[in-house]
Amino acid sequence: MLAQFAFLDLSTPDLLIILAIVLLLFGAKKLPELSRSIGSSARELRKGLSGEDEKSEKTKQADGSES
After folding, report:
1. In whole angstroms, how far apart are CA 44 and each of 30, 31, 50, 54, 62?
2. 31, 11, 15: which is closest to 23 by C-alpha?
3. Among 26, 42, 43, CA closest to 34
């Protein structure tokens, strides 16, 4: 999996430059809001992906126990 991101070979100065550009684009007041929204989106995505598996398993268990 790490081989997929080998082209991103970012060092600390590179990350600091990217962070500075993001800070300039969005401003200091918007960064916490932006990171919160990204985090909640990622959380919802994980819930959605794992929720489908859980729902299908619960449905199978409920169907099996009723008969």
Report:
1. 21, 20, 10, 15, 26
2. 31
3. 26
Is it the case that residue 1 has pLDDT exceeding 60? no
What is the rounded radius of gyration, in angstroms, for the C-alpha atoms of the chain? 20
In terms of pLDDT, which residue wins out, 28 or 5? 28
Give the start-to-end residue ranges of the domains of the chain: 28-60
Looking at every residue in the chain, the average pLDDT score rounds to: 78
44 touches 51 (CB < 8 A): no
> Structure pTM?
0.46
